Amino acid sequence: MKHLYLMLLFVSTLSVSQESRLTIFSEDGEAFYLFLNSIRQNEEPVVNIAVDYLTNDYYDAKIVFANESINQIEKKYLMAVDADGNRGEFVYKIKNSNRGRKLRFYSFTPFQSLMPPPEHVPLIHYNAVPLPPIQTITQTTTTTTTANGDQINIGVGVNTNDTNVGVGIHVNSGITTTTTQTTTTTIGNSTDVVIVEETDCYAMSPSDFNQALASIKSKSFSDSKLTLAKQVTKGNCLTSAQIAQITSLFDFEDTKLEYAKFAYSFCYNPENYWKVNNAFEFESTIEELHAYIESLGF
Questions:
Q1: Are 295 and 266 in contact, with CB atoms under 8 Å apart?
Q2: Same structural domain for residues 214 and 279?
Q3: pLDDT at 176
Q4: Domain termination site, one of 165, 197, 229
Q5: Nearest in space to 38 (alpha carbons), one of 13, 64, 62
Q6: Same domain flag for 29 and 105
Q7: Were 121 and a residue from 117, 216, 249, 252 both cysteine, which residue would form a disulfide, CB within 3.0 to 4.6 Å?
Q8: Is the pTM of this model over 0.70?
Q9: Are 94 and 32 in contact (CB under 8 A)?
Q10: Where does the DUF4476 domain lie (predicted)?
Q11: pLDDT value at position 45?
Q12: What percentage of the chain has pLDDT greater than the value 70?
């Protein structure tokens, strides 16, 4: 009995001690600093980073690029748990779109399946202590020569048998002045341009989705199905697989396409939106959906 009690206590401790890990990488290789709850996590700019020991359900995140010409990204309520309250690794990528750089969800791995990050990804334990301001130092050297020094002019002229020979010597011992200017710039000031992104959406739980799917199926008319499907989708983020299931419920290709276009903006994992293609009958519909997504510039 005592051994059983200790084992149960150990399992309980493991479940309580679970935490999440946040991994962010820059798709185009632009180095950045990561701020969580206004506290900088990395001392040097990196192109990818992993932060563990995250025990809160959400964090306010800010991305400050080493290249000061790139606008900062700020995302409120970056979740550290999924829709069912499960912890694990949340991976985001910084994507450069037609509308500027965005922080986009990439993948989720449950806590029980977590592996150490790759060697090239720096792993940082969540830092709750503020670091010094980010500063860059630029030195500019200017060299100036003035002609106020001594001048020596020597001229010699010879005229023999209609032949003219001239020799001129000019010496200028000018003054050279070298000036070095040092400029210190602080990155991440409140006056910098910040792009504030909307709060992330997280996938609808399987149980809630199955209830919604049954409700949509129960509708007799295509218009009623479409109206309810849009209501469910707008109020909850769906995975690409869930969207594909709903799309398959419609009888007409035009209705399928209309819903698939509408649902894209509410997709939890848009990088897998290709799964929705299986719901269509014609290649032309797939091409039209692809062209529509491309036009959004995400």
A1: no
A2: yes
A3: 65
A4: 197
A5: 62
A6: yes
A7: 117
A8: no
A9: yes
A10: 204-292
A11: 95
A12: 70
Name the residue with tokens 């002229």.
Answer: 157
User: In this structure, are 142 and 123 located in the same domain?
Assistant: no
Q: Tell me if 4 is assigned to some domain.
A: no
Residue 116 DSSP one-character state: P
152: containing domain: 138-183
Tokens matching residue 50:
């992993």
Number of domains in the chain: 3
Same domain (yes/no): 88, 147: no
Both 267 and 223 in a single domain?
A: yes
Q: Is the confidence at residue 75, as pLDDT, over 70?
A: yes
Contact 233, 265 (CB under 8 A): no
CA 95 to chain centre: 5
84 & 121 share domain: yes
pLDDT at 163 over 60: no
Three-class SS of 149-191: CCEEEEEEEEEECCEEEEEEEEEECCEEEEEEEEEEEEECCCC
pLDDT at residue 143 tops 50 = yes
Asked whether 253 and 285 are in contact (CB, 8 A), the reply is yes
Q: Which of 43, 89, 80 is nearest to 64 (CA)?
A: 43
Q: Is the pLDDT of residue 193 over 80?
A: no
Residues in a beta bridge with 138:
183
> 91-100, 154-163, 169-178 — which one is most confidently predicted on average?
91-100
* Tens-digit pLDDT profile for residues 253-277: 999 999 999 999 888 778 789 999 9
